[in-house]
Design a protein that fits this description.
The chain is α+β, with helices and mostly antiparallel strands and 438 residues long. The strands form 4 sheets. Strands 1-2-3-10-7 form a 5-stranded mixed beta sheet, covered by helices on one side.
């Protein structure tokens, strides 16, 4: 039999893990990950290539590092269906009779959240404990942030964050009667088990970590999409906007599989891509900000770009509204968006040019004067946002010294810092464009 031990192999393993730990801390030997590996092995899954690593100070938290290089088309992970937590899991559980008889029909999301809260409450008695133990204890989606931190978010994101909080509270309030019906399952009062904070944790777990997996419609559920599946270990893969993967459920192998489209080097963190999302979407839905995100942008509210009033201003605004040109104006890494510049060009039309407004919406150049004026206003808006961003960053810096919310404030600070970089890049682009008219 080949000797697998010995001093040489120990040195080799030590060097391997040291290389990981130079960038992060290997968590393979932590008790919770040892238990998770055993639990996954019992469910017919074992992975010897991916290693859980914690990256302190990098904003990604935990991630998975590959022991080997992964070329295009290589399998990153193949997780058996038996490891997935879906509404099928819930229906096979003790919750089935309560879900089946409840009216109005509970949503698939409610079923999943109820199961998560119940299993977490069960503690050592839960067969899902090894997975629950490695889930985050708290999340950083805006719905979890303190009000004073939410107030520091950019206006468009702040509005969405408040809408998200309202929706979640309504979700909780409308589910209370269903939770009460579960009382026979528990010796404690269900109000203490299915609290708002417990549901918030479960909702964030499902919202931030689930993979897309369409399940057959079941009579006991409402018509809302039934597409969420929690995938233990696989959900440690972090997002990067720069990678491409193929993720799908293989009906033949009955496994959820992820394959590379872009290669990954040996001893490097393995990333997947959640989609071409800007940082507002990433923070709202997943609770993080991607550095140097090519899809990131700075949103411009309508009242920030109106030039000096003229007699035709109301007509111009009506035209923009009629043609759906009143939102999604942005600055990006390559400058102001086409929508923003087009709206500005229309608003900057001189009285004698007004009849050309249709040509503006089609992207035609009306005059050098119109082009220059619209670029000048875009530059003013950009500078206004740079000043506003610097002011917020200064405020956040002061709050970090005074308030015990360092992690939340650091997240907001990262978002604003990225937006400042985008605005500075846009300002440089605008200078280049303006040179053509000087």
């Amino acid at each position: 039999m080949k000797n697998r031990g010995g001093r040489t192999s120990r040195i080799r393993r030590r060097k391997l893990f040291t290389s990981f730990e130079s960038r992060g801390v290997n968590e393979s030997y932590k008790p919770e990950f040892i238990e998770l590996k055993k639990w996954l092995k019992d469910r017919k899954f074992e992975d010897t290539n991916l290693i859980p690593i914690r990256f302190p100070g990098m904003g990604t938290g935990r991630g998975l590092v590959s022991k080997t290089s992964l070329q295009e088309g290589h399998m990153i992970i193949s997780l058996p269906e038996s490891c997935l937590l879906t509404t099928d899991t819930v229906i096979r559980s003790y919750l089935r009779p309560y879900i089946a008889k409840w009216q109005p029909l509970p949503s698939p999301l409610l079923a999943l959240c109820t199961f998560l809260v119940s299993e977490k409450h069960a503690g050592d008695r839960s067969p899902w404990k090894p997975y629950l133990e490695v889930l985050p204890k708290a999340y950083t989606c805006p719905v979890c942030l303190e009000p004073e931190v939410v107030n520091l978010l950019p206006e468009p994101l702040k509005a969405k964050a408040r809408e998200q909080r309202t929706r979640l509270w309504e979700f909780f309030s409308s589910s209370r009667d269903f939770f009460s019906s579960l009382q026979p399952l528990f010796s404690e009062a269900v109000e203490s088990i299915f609290s708002y904070s417990a549901l918030l944790w479960a909702w964030c777990t499902a919202n931030t970590r689930a993979v897309y997996l369409k399940r057959p419609w079941r009579r006991c559920f409402s018509a809302e999409p039934n597409t969420c599946a929690l995938a233990p270990f696989l959900d440690l893969l972090n997002h990067s906007p720069d990678v491409q993967v193929k993720a799908t459920f293989n009906e033949e192998t009955r496994c959820y599989e992820i394959r590379t489209v872009t290669s990954c080097g040996k001893h490097k963190e393995v990333f997947i891509c959640y989609g071409p999302h800007d940082n507002h979407r990433l923070l709202l839905e997943y609770g993080f900000v991607a550095m140097r995100n090519p899809h990131a942008c700075v949103y411009v509210l309508k009242d920030k770009y109106l030039p000096s009033a003229d007699k035709q201003m109301n007509k111009k605004i009506s035209i923009l509204e009629d043609h759906n040109f009143v939102e999604n104006f942005t600055f990006g890494w390559d400058g102001p968006s086409w929508r923003l510049l087009t709206a500005l060009k229309l608003l900057c039309l001189e009285a004698e040019e007004f009849t050309c407004w249709k040509k503006v919406l089609l992207g035609e150049i009306i005059s050098d004067t119109n082009e220059k004026t619209s670029l000048d206003i875009a530059q003013k808006i950009c500078h206004y946002f740079i000043e506003e961003t610097n002011a917020v960053l200064q405020k956040v810096s002061h709050m970090k010294d005074e308030v015990a919310l360092t992690n939340q404030l650091t997240l907001v600070e990262t978002l604003w810092t990225e937006e400042l970089k985008i605005l500075q890049a846009s300002a440089e682009t605008l200078i280049s464009l303006q040179k053509a008219f000087t």
